[in-house]
User: Fold this.
Amino acid sequence: MSVCLSTAAICFVYGAFSLEIMNQMSSTNDNAPLIDPFGRVHTSFRISVTDRCNLRCFYCMPEEKVRFRPRNEILSYEEIERFVRIVSRQGIRKVRISGGEPLVRTDLWRLVERLSSIKPIKEVALTTNGMLLSQQAQKLKDAGLSRLNISLDTLNEDTFRKIARRDGLDLVLDGIAAAERVGFENIKLNALSIRGLAENEIVPLAEFARKRELELRFIEFMPLDAGGQWQTDDVLSGGEVRKILEAALGPLVPLPRGDASLPAVEYRFASGGGKIGFINSVTEPFCDQCNRLRLTAEGKIRNCLFSKEEWDVRQFLRHEDCSPEAVDVQVMDRVQAAVGQKKAGHGIGTAEFTPPQRSMHQIGG
Ligand code: SAM
Ligand code: SF4
Assistant:
């Protein structure tokens, strides 16, 4: 009953004259769009399914002595499905599964199947490092996964080892090939742009992606590394990456901007083919168009990658004494609270900015 104390009235009345009150309560939240104080309408949730990973990329995780959450703290597939069903009533239409490495969760396709079956959800996407993709690509496709982003920072085995602190480039390449083979369309490759590391990778990656007709997106390095080593100078800006690309492969032509809430600005090569995206989160923040919220693997809502505050929903999703309606109301209230306190932007580069306490693998990329 402890969690229900704040909702004691709801739980109490459930036994007595619950229905009328429940109906009133749900009607206050149901279908209310998630609009923040700056007028941004939120339709997308990034859901982390684990803080564990089979790599140790230096920009995201410590190399050793990583303290993972105990398994009983991590939301089950049932709980995630329940959560998504609830937020779909608040206008969420797109879900991206991430982590940690999502494919280390047993039978992730089962979650994809559950989420794809939720009527209002139009898109279930996945971001993966690709290491386990070759075994799982077909099942994920069959389960209804709509989109796939695969992280690939380099085509050089030594550089891969330097970044990921593990071997595995061949597995990632096998994963990409499997994803193509089973028929995923619009696969995107994500490459992180870090000064001193990425410069020599940019052109080979672009040629690799162009040949395979995959979109390649360059993401600016953000202050989310576990060691807190990030410095502004480490960011190889999208503008610099573009110059390197154009010097080697010729001019890039901007593509018309479709959905303004999508973070990448896209180009094609003037000489034909290739799709290159730039996610310039640091040098050209797109916070004013942000429509995303995040759920951590242990069930906390974050309204920004860099948010200092979190809103717990696991306590409600796990509360068996409350009526389903009361749980729904509590979860919706939490989501609304998170949205209501969203800031205008991440503030990187301002005097007030401090990086979050948690690194990327704990938040969910
Ligand atoms: N393990 C999966 C993967 O690597 O694709 C999913 C989780 S990972 C945290 C999601 C994305 O976040 C990856 O594309 C990764 O490159 C990116 N990422 C990790 N740390 C980052 C950082 N400090 N700045 C910018 N992007 C980062
Ligand atoms: Fe793992 Fe992805 Fe983080 Fe690399 S970026 S350590 S693959 S979660």
Observations:
- Residues 53, 59-60, 98-99, 101, 127-129, 151, 190, 192, 219, 221-222, 224-225, 360-361, 365 surround S-adenosylmethionine (ligand 1) (CB under 6 Å).
- Residues 2-363 form a domain with the TIM Barrel fold (CATH 3.20.20.70).
- Residues 324-340 form the longest helix (17 residues).
- The first strand starts at residue 34 and ends at 35.
